[in-house]
Design brief:
This protein has about 375 residues and is α+β, with helices and mostly antiparallel strands. It folds into 3 domains: about 80 residues, no CATH class; about 110 residues, Beta Barrel (Butyryl-CoA Dehydrogenase, subunit A, domain 2), CATH 2.40.110.10; about 100 residues. Helix content is about 45%, strand content about 15%. It is built from 12 helices and 8 strands. A 4-stranded mixed sheet has the order 1-4-5-8. It has a 4-stranded antiparallel sheet with strand order 2-3-7-6, with no helix packed on it. Strand 6 and strand 7 form a beta hairpin. Helix 6 crosses helix 9, helix 7 runs antiparallel to helix 8 and helix 7 packs parallel to helix 9. It binds flavin-adenine dinucleotide. Flavin-adenine dinucleotide (FAD) binds next to strand 1, helix 11 and helix 12.
Length: about 375
Amino acid sequence: MSSSTDPPTIESVDRFRLRARAWIEDNGHLAPPDYGANVPAELNERGRAWQRAMHDAGFAAIHWPIGYGGQGLSLDHHRAWTQECQAAGLSPILNMVGLVLAAEALLSYGTEAQKRELLPRTARGEILWCQLFSEPSSGSDLASLSTTATLDGDTWVFNGQKVWTSTGTEADWAILMARSEPDVDRHAGISFFVLDVRSPGVDIRPLRQMNGDAGFAQTHLDDARAPATALLGQRGQGWAIAMDVLGRERSFGSNGARALERQLEQAMADLPDGLDPVWRARAAERWVEGQAYLALCARGDAAHPSARKLALSRFRFDLAELAADATGADAMLWNDRAHELSSAPGSWFGGGTTEVQRNIIGERVLGLAREPRPEPAPPTEGPRG
Ligand SMILES: Cc1cc2nc3c(=O)[nH]c(=O)nc-3n(C[C@H](O)[C@H](O)[C@H](O)COP(=O)(O)OP(=O)(O)OC[C@H]3O[C@@H](n4cnc5c(N)ncnc54)[C@H](O)[C@@H]3O)c2cc1C
């Protein structure tokens, strides 16, 4: 018999997984089509409703503390949920920038008031987040960013331009990196903020990409104002927080193995009958490569996130190329395969470029000599890593 002083019993991961699977079977039809990491503009409303449904059923923010809108379970429960969604071809969260990056930054560095104000609404899908890091002249070399943050009494004033803001046009809040200490070393001068993008002075404009979508925005901050409570962590701590956040972004991006496995199976199933030996050899090569990449991803944290990201982004393109080639001349016009082929290169850049991931693997995993830096690097520095 349990007494009132016993700690609450936590559901085992296996039981949780079965419960999650059953709920998905009953409710998966409510979800929009699988959109990957961040809900696109055209699925915004459906994505938010899906996030709300997951929340109300106890499948959102699974490993966050209960007081902040979470379920108080473990990371293993959270992984089980993600795997069940991926197996069913559903997106497990509204968007990675909010539910992973902003949320983990808030959980680790936020004040009690920031957590209570922002996390429960994020878990319910009421706040969609975007990431205001990259600038026209600061992508890989993020530490060179020049957007300024100046404290005017108890108000922060931001000026500068950000670019490649995924889901920017639909977002409500942003995580923002800006230079608050102009006179110190470029890393130590950066602070991290949470900004309501409906604030005066924030202007978000869509950018159209080569695949025809407008999933990105450019964001202008012209005397944009936010209360002093917009600062996350300490002044000058922004670089350390960002490194933490970007590590999670790479890790999340490299979790897309199940989706890619489905794509691989689909690509093979769609190949026309009676392929000549050259085609068959090419398809077999992709299949074998795919199995190797999936095995790498199955190692989870035992494989460096940069290695997993590198593998998956390269494989996504190779597979898209195979699928497009298989449709022949049609892919030169426009179809789903052509769309995927022109979208796939984006994953070579988002969350840190291929070359930068190679540098990270070379320097931090293989222990090779560091590439020349323009200045002494702080302990956690890498270009956007
Ligand atoms: C799908 C997608 C989503 C994105 N979402 C967001 C977002 O929401 N918010 C946000 O802030 N940004 C976002 N970005 C921007 C992304 O983070 C940047 O594109 C990326 O960091 C590269 O920066 P850059 O485009 O300025 O290229 P650059 O840094 O100018 O790089 C240009 C080329 O030089 C190479 N290069 C640069 N430095 C080195 C080096 N040290 N060694 C070797 N080669 C190097 C790069 O690999 C690349 O090939 C997104 C990008 C994409 C494609």
